[in-house]
Amino acid sequence: DAKTTQPPSMDCAEGRAANLPCNHSTISGNEYVYWYRQIHSQGPQYIIHGLKNNETNEMASLIITEDRKSSTLILPHATLRDTAVYYCIAPTNQAGTALIFGKGTTLSVSS
Amino acid sequence: GAVVSQHPSRVICKSGTSVKIECRSLDFQATTMFWYRQFPKKSLMLMATSNEGSKATYEQGVEKDKFLINHASLTLSTLTVTSAHPEDSSFYICSARDSRQNTEAFFGQGTRLTVV
């Protein structure tokens, strides 16, 4: 897996956009970037993933820099229910490879 | 997204007994399943990887005779904690993916095991 680096914690006001950064400077050309989040005492929830292009779904947007050394997960209108630990993972692109979780970013959304 | 169901969500057992945790993929074929454990305020730690019909591959430091993993079908994997002790109390989480599709992995809701 490519090593990823995330800030340990971030705060965001409810209704504002939450921008969560991730550095993955050693990522290989065929390794995707995945984002998951874990709300307290639950299993991780898949958010989004991408390779080169920016991606958007109903949950979030993923912006990947042109050199692919970093990315940003954007929650456009954060709510209190978005408070969670967010994990950025760049697994080795082999079938059957497990996701290895780092410490992630604890996002706290407040009213 | 795809659904992975894990059961039970909570279990309390006595020291020395065994506990079985089930993980089912409800709407896709899970060729590969993963088992993690998580201690309070810590990240998920991979315990083992299992491919359907094959023996599980355990991570370093995980006792295969203590944590028995069975993955006999494309929709079910089980983790049995044998002769449980209080130090085995933890949050156990399964994950499943269809490696043939190279899609993302999906996670169960987790099982909180308390050994008393």
Chart the SSEs and their pairings.
The complex is a heterodimer of chains A (111) and B (116).
Chain A: E1 9-13, E2 18-23, E3 33-38, E4 45-50, E5 55-56, E6 61-64, E7 70-75, E8 84-89, E9 105-110
Parallel strand pairs in A: 1-9
Antiparallel strand pairs in A: 2-7, 3-4, 3-8, 5-6, 6-7, 8-9
Chain B: E1 4-7, E2 10-13, E3 19-25, E4 32-38, E5 45-51, E6 57-58, E7 67-73, E8 76-81, E9 90-97, E10 106-107, E11 111-115
Parallel strand pairs in B: 2-11
Antiparallel strand pairs in B: 1-3, 3-8, 4-5, 4-9, 5-6, 7-8, 9-10, 9-11
Structural summary, described in words:
The complex is a heterodimer of chains A (111) and B (116). The mean pLDDT of chain A is 93. Chain A is built from no helices and nine strands. The N and C termini of chain A lie far apart (37 Å). Chain A is mainly β. Chain A has strands at residues 9-13, 18-23, 33-38, 45-50, 55-56, 61-64, 70-75, 84-89, 105-110. In chain B, a hairpin with a 2-residue loop joins strand 7 and strand 8. Chain B starts with a strand and ends with a strand. With 116 residues, chain B is mostly beta strands. In chain B, the strands form two sheets. In chain B, strands 2, 4, 5, 6, 9, 10 and 11 form a seven-stranded mixed sheet that branches. In chain B, strands 1-3-8-7 form a four-stranded antiparallel sheet, with no helix packed on it. Chain B contains no helices and eleven strands. Classes of the chains: A mainly beta (111), B mainly beta (116). Chain A binds chain B through residues 34, 36, 38, 41-46, 49, 87, 95-96, 98-104, and chain B through 1, 4, 6, 31-32, 34, 36, 43-46, 49, 51, 91, 93-95, 97, 99-100, 102, 104-110, 112.
